[in-house]
Design brief:
Distance between the termini of chain A: 58 Å
CATH superfamily of chain A: Winged helix-like DNA-binding domain superfamily/Winged helix DNA-binding domain
Number of domains of chain A: 1
Radius of gyration of chain A: 20 Å
Strand order of the largest sheet of chain A: 1-3-2
Oligomer: homodimer
Order of helices and strands of chain A: HHEHHEEH
CATH topology of chain A: Arc Repressor Mutant, subunit A
Structural class of chain A: alpha+beta
Largest interface: A-B, 28 and 28 residues
Helix content of chain A: 55-70%
Shape of chain A: elongated
DNA sequence: AAGATACTGAAGCAACAACTTCAGTATTGT
DNA sequence: ACAATACTGAAGTTGTTGCTTCAGTATCTT
């Protein structure tokens, strides 16, 4: 379960929620416990844990239990997968843009 | 409504669905009508239109009605917004990675 | 003009998402 | 040992998604 390949659906889903992006922004600063993360969010601990599960699934966060505290840190795999996806699609997207530019300029010639 | 700034929530939400990503992949090849898009998807026209609405909201697709046909094309604004977001977060992410590398090597020194 | 085509709009429905509450279970501090 | 802390798990609620059906309305085509 730990090294499942990253599911792009889960990744986009994870990133689509503002609370989860807030958690990520928080973790960019430093690792934090669940309750510390919960503090500024105005939601219950339970809800935060649920968000964390989704972020872990997307490999954007890694957590580990130390004593009674669950320490949460950023994981890079998810973010790298996003960059990879974006890069892969960029080339196709660009090709298409070039093609349309062509079509357009041909239309200009033969209106 | 046309030039609303792009909402990152809508953007990620739009990209989080495989049917919608399939539509985008299709439109990278060439513009298409709603019914042409529907053909390989195995869902109703109505469902496709609903997906298109979400893609338009995210500025990933632009559609325009010509006669009785709605022609759908890729729009770049959404994709560019995604790249922008990724770029913006990359720097923060990198800073953090450096910091953790530091912390880690300090731990190595004082265990 | 009449039929075929290409959507459009409203309504409904099952599954899922983001919460909550409440009742635990470990760990830690005194 | 005992209380406080830091979660954990199950269950329930409310709203949103991704679909459907069905009944239109334009716009071709012949």
């Amino acid at each position: 379960m730990r090294d499942r390949p990253i599911d792009i659906n889960r990744l986009f889903h994870a990133l689509g929620d503002p609370t989860r992006r807030a958690i990520l922004d928080r973790l960019v600063e430093r690792p934090a416990s669940v309750s510390r993360l919960a503090e500024p969010l105005g939601i219950t601990l339970t809800a935060v844990v649920q968000h964390l599960q989704i972020l872990e699934d997307a490999r954007l966060v890694h957590t580990e239990k130390l004593g009674r505290v669950r320490v949460c840190r950023l994981e890079t795999a998810g973010f790298r997968a996003l960059e990879q996806w974006t890069r892969n699609h960029r080339t196709a997207w660009e090709r298409k843009l070039d093609r349309f530019a062509e079509l357009l300029s041909e239309e200009d010639k033969n209106p």
